[in-house]
Design a protein that fits this description.
The complex is a heterodimer of chains A (679) and B (58).
Chain A (H helix, E strand, L loop, with lengths): L1 H8 L5 H54 L5 H10 L2 H26 L4 H31 L1 H12 L2 H15 L5 H33 L4 H10 L2 H28 L1 E2 L1 H33 L18 H34 L1 E2 L2 E2 L8 H26 L1 H17 L5 H5 L13 E2 L3 H18 L1 E6 L1 H10 L10 H11 L5 H13 L8 E7 L5 H4 L8 E5 L5 E5 L8 H9 L8 H6 L2 E2 L4 H17 L10 E6 L6 E7 H4 L12 H10 L7 E4 L1
Parallel strand pairs in A: 11-12
Antiparallel strand pairs in A: 1-4, 2-3, 5-6, 5-7, 6-10, 7-11, 8-9, 8-10
Chain B lengths: L2 H55 L1
The chains are: A alpha+beta (679), B mainly alpha (58).
C-alpha cells in the first residue's frame, strides 16, 4: 500500500516533498511533546526528591564514619556533637533542604495545575517528603548520628558482654517489624534467646569435643605447647590459643545458630512480590485497551509484553508498551494511506480535495494537491491515534504501576533493614548450616591454607621503586617528613596521630622495637583472590611473596581499624570497641604462626559461604602480618597482575609506573627470575 | 496546551530548577562545612587525650 501511495505522491516529489516529510515528523514530535513535557515534570520532581535523599544519606554516612574512626568514648563524642552545636546546626540545614525540596516541588506542580495525573503524582511525592522529614531527619537520621541504643548497649555490654549482641539483634529485628507486630516479636525473641543460650552451650561442647582437638587448639594442646615454647613466646602463644578458639566459636555461631540471610532468595522473593503487586494492576489496565488494540490486529497480554515473576519490572513494561505504540502508528499510517489511495481512485476526492485521474499528469496541480494531501494524511493519522488513546493509557498505566512504590520510597530506614521491600521479612530467608557441614568445610579450607599459605606484602610500583633505590624497607616510624605529610593528607588526621596509635598497638602486641622496624603485610593463601592479587590488593598491585623461613606474628583484620567480620563480631561480643580500646582490641585478635593457617582457612571458608549467599565480606578482612627487620633477600618472588604489568590498568597517579618497573626488573640479573606476571 | 504554552512553561521550569540547584548547592556546602568542623573538633580532642596519656607515661 505504501507503494501505491508513493505512486500518487510522486506528483509532489522533489525538495518540497522532503520538506513536507521532515515538517510532518517535526509536527508529530511537537504534538507528542506535551506528553514529553509532562514526563519532564515528573522526572524533575523525582530528581529534586532524589537530591535531598542523596545529600542526607551522604552526610549520614560521613558522620557515621567520623564517629566510627573517632577513637573517642561515645559519651565524649556525643557531648561534642550536642554541646558543640553540631547537632543543632545539622538539623537546621537538613530542615532547610527539606523546605527547599517541598517548595520546589510545589512550584513544579503549579506549572501543570490543569493536569490531574501529574497533580496526583506530585501530591504523592509531597507525602513522601513529609514522611522523610519525620522518618529520616527526625528519627533515622538523628538515630544514625546519635546511635543511642547501640551506645547504651555497648556501655551495658562491659558488664554483660552478651547484652550488646542481644540488643543489636533486637534493634535489627524491630526495624524489619511492623509496629503492631513488635510485642509479638519481642515475646518470640525472649523465647528465641533462651533457645539460643541452650544452643550456644551445645555448640561450645561440640567445639571442645570435636573441633578444638582436631585443630590442636584444645586446653591440653595449649598446655603442651606452652611448656615447650621459649619464655618470650609464651604470652603471644597463650593469647593466640584463646583468640583462635573464640574466633572459631563466633564463626560456628554465625552459621549454625544465628543463620545468614540468603540475599539471592530475598531478591527472588522481592521480584515475586513485585509481580504479585503489579500483575493485577497491569492486567486490569490491559483490559481497558485490549479491544481497541484487537481491532488493529494487535494482541496484548501480560505474556506478550514479557511480564513474568522473573522479569517484573516497570521500566521493562514501559519499553514493551513503547514498541506496541510504534506498531500502532505504523498500522494506522498504512490504513490512512490505503484509504487516501482508494478514495482518490474511486471518487477522485479525499476529504474535500479533488484530484480526478485525468489531472494526475498535471505536475503543477499535483504538487499542490500532494502538499494538501500530506496535511490531511497527518490529520487523519493523529485523529486515529488519538481515538485509540494508547499514549494516554500508557501514562495512566505507568502511574498505576508506580503508585504502590511511590508511597514507600527507598529511605535510609529501608537501607538499614535487609530487604528493599518492607513487606518482605528477610529473616524468613535465613540459611542455617549444620555443625558437621561447617567442620567439613573448615577442614578443607584450613588444609588448603596450610598447603598454599605465604607471607605477602602488597605494594605500589612507586613505593617498591623507593625500596629498591634505598636498598631496603623502612617502617612507618622512619618515614621522611614528606611521606608523613602525604599520609596525613590521606588519613586526614593530626600530627603523629597515626604514629601514636601505632605505638600503642605495637606495644600491646609485644612487637614494638624502634631498633628493628616492623613491616606490615598479610598472610595469604589460595582462595581465588590472594594467589592472583595478594593478601591486601588495596595497598598496591605488586605482591611480594616472602620466603617461608621469614618469621611473623599476626592479627585478625587490620590491627588499627579491624574490619575483619568475624573478629569484629568477636570483639563486639566481648564488649571491646576498636575505636577506643586500641590495645585490648589488638591483643584479642593476635594470632601466632602456629594458628595462622587455621584463622586464614576459617576466613576463606567464611568468604566462601557469604559469597554463596550473596553477601560480600570486608576487603580489609585480611590476616595482618607483622614482620620484623625484613630485607630484600627475604623476597621469594615479585608478582604483578598482567593488566598492571602491561600498563592496561593503573591504580592512581601516585601509584607509579608498573610497566616500566617490570621492564627494568626483567632485565636485572638479580630479579629477572623472581618476577612473575600473573594472568 | 499549545506549543507556545509548553515552551513558556518549559522556560519557567528551567528557571525553577536553576534557582533550586544554586540554593541546594549552597546548603550542601554549609552542611559539609559543619561536618568538617565536627571532624576537626573530634580530632583535636583525641590529640589532646593522647598528649595527656603520653605525658602520664613519661
Amino acid at each position: 500500500m505504501n507503494k501505491e501511495f508513493k505512486k500518487i505522491s510522486t506528483f509532489s516529489e522533489g525538495k518540497e516533498r522532503e520538506q513536507n516529510i521532515s515538517k510532518e515528523t517535526k509536527d508529530n514530535q511537537e504534538i507528542s511533546s506535551e506528553r514529553d513535557f509532562q514526563r519532564l515534570l515528573e522526572h524533575s520532581i523525582s530528581e529534586v526528591y532524589n537530591n535531598q535523599r542523596d545529600i542526607i544519606e551522604k552526610a549520614s554516612r560521613r558522620i557515621e564514619s567520623i564517629n566510627h574512626f573517632s577513637n573517642l568514648f561515645e559519651e565524649k563524642r556525643n557531648n561534642i556533637f550536642e554541646q558543640g552545636g553540631f547537632k543543632k546546626k545539622i538539623e537546621e540545614i537538613i530542615g532547610k533542604i527539606s523546605s527547599l525540596t517541598r517548595e520546589t516541588i510545589r512550584q513544579i506542580r503549579d506549572l501543570v495545575s490543569n493536569q490531574p495525573e501529574v497533580i496526583h503524582f506530585s501530591e504523592m511525592i509531597n507525602l513522601d517528603i513529609a514522611e522523610i522529614q519525620n522518618a529520616e531527619v527526625g528519627n533515622v537520621e538523628m538515630q544514625a548520628l546519635e546511635q543511642p541504643k547501640a551506645e547504651d548497649a555497648e556501655r551495658a555490654s562491659v558488664e554483660n558482654p552478651k547484652t550488646l549482641i542481644e540488643e543489636k539483634n533486637r534493634n535489627q529485628e524491630t526495624q524489619t517489624s511492623f509496629p503492631e507486630q513488635q510485642n509479638e516479636d519481642q515475646q518470640e525473641n525472649t523465647q528465641a534467646e533462651n533457645q539460643e543460650s541452650k544452643e550456644q552451650k551445645e555448640l561450645k561442647e561440640y567445639l571442645e569435643r570435636e573441633v578444638f582437638p582436631k585443630f590442636k587448639l584444645s586446653v591440653e594442646d595449649e598446655e603442651r605447647a606452652l611448656a615447650e615454647a621459649p619464655e618470650e613466646r609464651r604470652e603471644i602463644l597463650k593469647r593466640s590459643f584463646e583468640n583462635s578458639r573464640k574466633s572459631l566459636e563466633v564463626f560456628y555461631t554465625k552459621f549454625v545458630i544465628d543463620g545468614v540471610v540468603d540475599r539471592y532468595a530475598v531478591d527472588r522473593a522481592e521480584k515475586k512480590l513485585n509481580f504479585e503487586i503489579l500483575a493485577p494492576i497491569l492486567e486490569s489496565s490491559i483490559l481497558e485497551i485490549k479491544p481497541r488494540l484487537n481491532e488493529l490486529g494487535i494482541d496484548i497480554s501480560l505474556s506478550s509484553i514479557g511480564f513474568t515473576p522473573e522479569t517484573a519490572d516497570i521500566e521493562e513494561v514501559m519499553k514493551a508498551l513503547s514498541k506496541i505504540n510504534q506498531m500502532i502508528e505504523s498500522i494506522i499510517r498504512e490504513r490512512v494511506e490505503k484509504e487516501i489511495v482508494e478514495s482518490l481512485l474511486q471518487k477522485g476526492e479525499y476529504r474535500g480535495i479533488y484530484a480526478p485521474q485525468e489531472r494526475w499528469q498535471d505536475e503543477e496541480f499535483m504538487e499542490q494537491i500532494g502538499r494538501q494531501l500530506d496535511i490531511l494524511k497527518r490529520q487523519a493519522i493523529n485523529e486515529a491515534i488519538g481515538e485509540i488513546g494508547f499514549l494516554d493509557w500508557m501514562e495512566q498505566t505507568r502511574n498505576r504501576l508506580n503508585k504502590p512504590f511511590i508511597m514507600q520510597p527507598f529511605t535510609i530506614q529501608e537501607s538499614l533493614t535487609t530487604t528493599r521491600i518492607p513487606e518482605i521479612d528477610a529473616r524468613k530467608y535465613k540459611v542455617y548450616k549444620s555443625k558437621e557441614e561447617i567442620t567439613q568445610l573448615l577442614e578443607e579450607e584450613i588444609d588448603r591454607a596450610e598447603q598454599t599459605g605465604f607471607l605477602c606484602i602488597n605494594i605500589t610500583a612507586a613505593k617498591f621503586e623507593k625500596v629498591l633505590s634505598e636498598g631496603g624497607f623502612r617502617d612507618i616510624f622512619s618515614l621522611s617528613e614528606e611521606d608523613l605529610r602525604a599520609m596525613k593528607d590521606i588519613t586526614g588526621r593530626g600530627d603523629r596521630f597515626y604514629l601514636d596509635q601505632r605505638t600503642v598497638i605495637e606495644q600491646a602486641l609485644g612487637i614494638y622495637n624502634p631498633e628493628i622496624p616492623t613491616l606490615y603485610g598479610t598472610y595469604a593463601s589460595e582462595n581465588g583472590i590472594d594467589e592472583k592479587r595478594g593478601g591486601a590488593p588495596a595497598y598496591g598491585a605488586i605482591f611480594l611473596k616472602l620466603k617461608p623461613e621469614v618469621q611473623a606474628s599476626f592479627c585478625e583484620g587490620d590491627s588499627m581499624s579491624g574490619c575483619n567480620d568475624i573478629a569484629d563480631e568477636k570483639l563486639a561480643r566481648e564488649g571491646i570497641y576498636i575505636g577506643t580500646h586500641w590495645a585490648e582490641a589488638a591483643k584479642r585478635r593476635q594470632i601466632a604462626l602456629e594458628h595462622v593457617s587455621i584463622i586464614k582457612g576459617m576466613n576463606n571458608a567464611y568468604r566462601k559461604i557469604m559469597n554463596q549467599l550473596g553477601h560480600g565480606v570486608h576487603p580489609f578482612g585480611y590476616i595482618e602480618a607483622h614482620i620484623k627487620g625484613l630485607k630484600l633477600e627475604d623476597i621469594e618472588s615479585i608478582n604483578i597482575p598482567r593488566s598492571f604489568a602491561e600498563g592496561i590498568l593503573i591504580e592512581s597517579i601516585d601509584a607509579g609506573n608498573y610497566e616500566s618497573l617490570v621492564k627494568r626488573l626483567q632485565q636485572d640479573p638479580y630479579w629477572k627470575d623472581k618476577i612473575n606476571i600473573i594472568d | 496546551m499549545n506549543q507556545q504554552e509548553i515552551q513558556e512553561k518549559n522556560e519557567k521550569l528551567k528557571n525553577i530548577l536553576l534557582k533550586y540547584k544554586e540554593e541546594l548547592e549552597r546548603l550542601r556546602r554549609e552542611l559539609f562545612n559543619i561536618i568538617n568542623e565536627y571532624q576537626k573538633t573530634i580530632d583535636n580532642e583525641r590529640i589532646k587525650e593522647l598528649k595527656e596519656d603520653l605525658m602520664r607515661h613519661e
